[in-house]
Design brief:
The chain is α+β, with helices and mostly antiparallel strands and about 400 residues long. About 35% of the residues lie in helices and about 15% in strands. Strands 1-3-2-13-12-11 form a six-stranded antiparallel beta sheet, sandwiched between helices. A three-stranded antiparallel beta sheet has the order 4-6-5. β2 and β3 form a beta hairpin. About 50% of the residues are buried.
């Protein structure tokens, strides 16, 4: 059953959510803002494997959708004149200059051109993600990998620590406190955490069907490795075919960026993971908070009389910086300063930008239509940047906004 409200003209978004929830287990929520007003606020399904209902205040871990939130937090510092996008990262984080990284700029980090995507060689186990000091120390000491001119290489798990340490060094606040003070509090957001307090963990949905949440015996291990070998054969064949067509794909590079050792048993929806600060991957959000945050961006930095960013900073932050193929996620991402393109079944929305995540979540803004959307879900895997469920919701919301105009 679907709960919540939808304004006249946006009923197709509700139908898409109903279809999504009928097709599988779990729960989800979607929220849409149009012209600064909430026009869709819907949720349904179950929040965990016990069958507990998804409630109005349920939050869900949203993987890389977190990057859009942490990026927006960094832009607050730029808006105040405390951060220069073209300054070396080492100006704010002196230890970062090690291993030939002295010339890497903040802009390089935000556009995934810093060459620091290889998390597999950076840490020996995924549980290192829980240790902030270890992660930023390892990144400071790491040597960058080359990124071809005109290309990008998605920093799937390292991005949040790079941006988060900049926030910490410049503001003097830990990332969870900065997000709470500078984004959540001014906008009155009901659930926007990167490192959630213990008092809010009862609201968290848990991942359903995730291998990381299942006890694994010897047979499971054998099946896991057999499936991995099959995937490697398939990916190898696809890679060879794409290279013959001139596409610069490299699945080994993608695996190095996306899969540190032990990631298959790391449960991002556990209390331990949600309470940590992993700013590229463990954001705990409501769809309502995501949509409202991006409504602020769609409106040029001010919403309901609350100014968080200037129009000039929003314009600089959302100008396309790179249009080549990304070396990790294969596609042309049209990277802005921390945001990427927004796809629909009718093509790419030309002025829209945001960030999507593994598992299907996502959030974006479209200033052309004064439109924003936030979506959270606790089932599925998809790709590192969303899946078809999100594309269907995007398509429906865009069509509704065009008709409303």
């Amino acid at each position: 059953m679907i709960h919540g409200v939808v304004s006249r003209g946006f009923e197709p978004v509700r139908r898409q959510l109903e279809t999504l929830l009928r097709k599988g287990p779990g729960g989800a929520a979607v929220c849409v803002y149009h012209r600064g007003r909430c026009v869709v606020d819907l949720w349904g399904g179950v929040k965990d494997e016990s069958g507990a209902p998804w409630l109005r205040d349920t939050m869900c871990v949203s993987y890389s959708t977190t990057k859009g939130v942490i990026t927006t937090a960094l832009h607050v510092l730029a808006d105040r004149g405390l951060l220069d996008y073209d300054a070396p990262v080492a100006r704010y984080w002196p230890e970062f200059a090690q291993a030939g990284k002295g010339a890497i700029t903040v802009r390089d980090v935000l556009t995934h051109r810093a060459g620091l995507f290889n998390i597999r060689d950076l840490i020996d186990d995924a549980r290192r993600l829980l240790d902030w000091d270890h992660m930023v120390g390892a990144l400071a000491a790491a040597a960058p990998s080359p990124v071809p001119p005109g290309a990008t290489a998605y920093q799937a798990l390292t991005y949040g620590f790079l941006v988060g340490e900049l926030i910490r060094r410049i503001s003097g606040k830990p990332v969870p406190a900065f997000v709470a003070d500078e984004l959540a509090a001014p906008l009155g957001l009901d659930g926007l955490y990167v490192g959630a307090p213990a008092s809010e963990l009862h609201r968290a949905a848990r991942l359903i069907g995730s291998p990381a949440r299942r006890a694994r015996g010897p047979r499971d291990e054998a099946a896991f490795h057999a499936a991995r070998r099959r995937r490697q054969r398939v990916f190898g064949a696809v890679e060879r075919g794409l290279r013959l067509l001139g596409h610069p794909v490299d699945f080994d590079r993608a695996a190095a960026a996306l899969a540190p050792h032990g990631i298959s048993t790391f449960d991002f929806s556990s209390d331990e993971a949600l309470a940590a600060c992993i700013p590229a991957a463990n954001g705990l959000f409501t769809a309502r908070s995501l949509a409202r945050l991006y409504a602020l961006l769609a409106a040029g930095g001010t919403l309901d009389g609350v100014r968080v960013l200037s129009p000039e900073t929003v314009a600089r932050a959302t100008e396309v910086q790179a249009d080549g193929y990304d070396q990790v996620v294969v596609f042309k991402m049209r990277w802005r300063l921390g945001y990427h393109r927004v796809g629909t079944f009718r093509g790419v929305a030309p002025r829209a930008y945001g960030h999507f995540g593994w598992g299907g979540s996502g959030a974006w803004a479209d200033p052309e239509h004064q439109l924003s959307l936030g979506f959270i879900v606790n089932t599925g895997s998809g790709t590192p940047i969303g899946d078809l469920r999100l594309l269907r919701l995007n398509t429906a919301a865009q069509a509704c906004a065009r008709r409303a105009r």
